[in-house]
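Posting here for the record, re: flavin-adenine dinucleotide.
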Amino acid sequence: MTPNVCVVGAGIAGAGAAYALRERAAVTVFEADAIGGRMVSGTRDGCVYDYGANYVDPPDEQVEAQLQSVVGDDLAVTTDDVWIFDAEGTIEEGRPNQGRKLSGRNGIDEIVAAYLDASGATVHEQTPVAHLSRTDDGWRVTAGGEQRPFDALVVTPPTCEALFEDADWEADLREQLIAARERQSYRTIDSVALHYPFALDVPYYALVNTDKDHAVGWLSRDSCKPGHVPDGEEILIVQLSPAWSAGRPEATPEQAAEAAADHAATLLAEDRLAGPDWWDHDRFTRALPGDRVNPALVEYALPHDLGLAGDWLAGTGRTHAALETGLDAGRRLGKRL
Ligand SMILES: Cc1cc2nc3c(=O)[nH]c(=O)nc-3n(C[C@H](O)[C@H](O)[C@H](O)COP(=O)(O)OP(=O)(O)OC[C@H]3O[C@@H](n4cnc5c(N)ncnc54)[C@H](O)[C@@H]3O)c2cc1C
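Prediction output follows.
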């Protein structure tokens, strides 16, 4: 009989796990919110904008070839460069020979959706996993008001300690996982999309603050991504620095948007940027991991029919690293099933 596997979370790690299991198991993915996780996109007035992860930078040709074959013609490739700026707002050219930066023509979440489509998994959005129970031959998962048995489980969210705390599972590993996640730090980022009814004439795709001493950590132009912004318009993605965001836990979306627009106007020396005609905002309290957990946890989990994946395991806030943890978890579980 075909084994069945439950994947918790439809971010890129969960999608990678489902993809790696596509010929080995019937996969069901439960997602608390929407496909993409932190690879999240918005749409408005004919515009598309990525306001979580900005792009996937494939580390080698093999990963890029896989992304190309899974996502196909919907990949949106940006070749413009990232430049740098310091605390004083002085802008300089970035490093030479920067690689290709990948999103989807309809948003970066399209990449995650493509992996899930190719996996053949059944995906339930807006369906958080509420409870996990270890059984003699797998796991019982409660989601959407139903309990279902699975032969194996893959857990991906950076908030997974809450699931393990509540789980019916007598094992030392349960405590180890909770402790490892609780020790790990995550940075908070307020991300703001600012729309303007005019184009910007600058020679770069994005600016990154290198001395970590500016209120803006990252500023990029979604108009550089094919299919995202109509000609003659601009969407700036301004990510306020972790210090700005963590130091203002009570900041409202309006305050974050106003700060983002003011800083964009000053940094780019363009007064009109202080007055976007519309904006969007999200606060990511678990934006980027500050450190990694013990990678041996992956090995310890396998005998429990448990795969672990996500950027919390990779220890770096990079989409390709989260994808690799998912592919790896799927491959390892697939061999055991
Ligand atoms: C502002 C920002 C900018 C970034 N910029 C970049 C960038 O330019 N390039 C780059 O490579 N990376 C970037 N990153 C990092 C990148 O987004 C992450 O490393 C990557 O997307 C993590 O993927 P994941 O699958 O591990 O986690 P997630 O994407 O967080 O996926 C986990 C999923 O689990 C779901 N979930 C949680 N609890 C439950 C539950 N109980 N039941 C079911 N589902 C649940 C969540 O809703 C979520 O969808 C950025 C991140 C942020 C926030």
